[in-house]
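Trying the structure run again after the queue cleared.
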Amino acid sequence: MINVNTYIKIKEEYIDFFQYDGDIKRIDYIDGALELTINGINLIDKSMYDYIDDLWSYLSEGLALLYDNKEFKCYFPDQPIEVKFIPSKGNRVLVSVNCHSEVKTSVDKNYFLIAMRDHAKKFFKRLEYLKPSSMGECKAAMKYLEVIKL
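Done. Tokens:
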């Protein structure tokens, strides 16, 4: 099972990104958080907040690489948190997040790609709606997501 949530951080409050209807003041740096739980293992949580638009852009590129069966590694935009997607035998992917210590799990690659791609697409469509000036960033990320044909 894969559970993905995205939040925008307004002052000290985390609001579900898809429920938020307010103004985004700093379009270049949107504070927020991602929650990613796979197989009951919390890989990313709200304590790892960062620039959520940039993080989803990085992850979108990584999903396209994983789709091509290539390994992906990145760091959060403004924190030393490492994320890795490593293709493995049996059409699986090892998802690893290292923040103070490594947490990892293996999951069906297609299942992971579909869940993450669909959430990322929804995120960028919502971002474009909330802040039309982000259209360029959204289109660039969507190009990566569109190559994932599952």
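The CA atoms of residues 68 and 118 lie 17 Å apart. Worth checking whether this holds up in the mutant runs.
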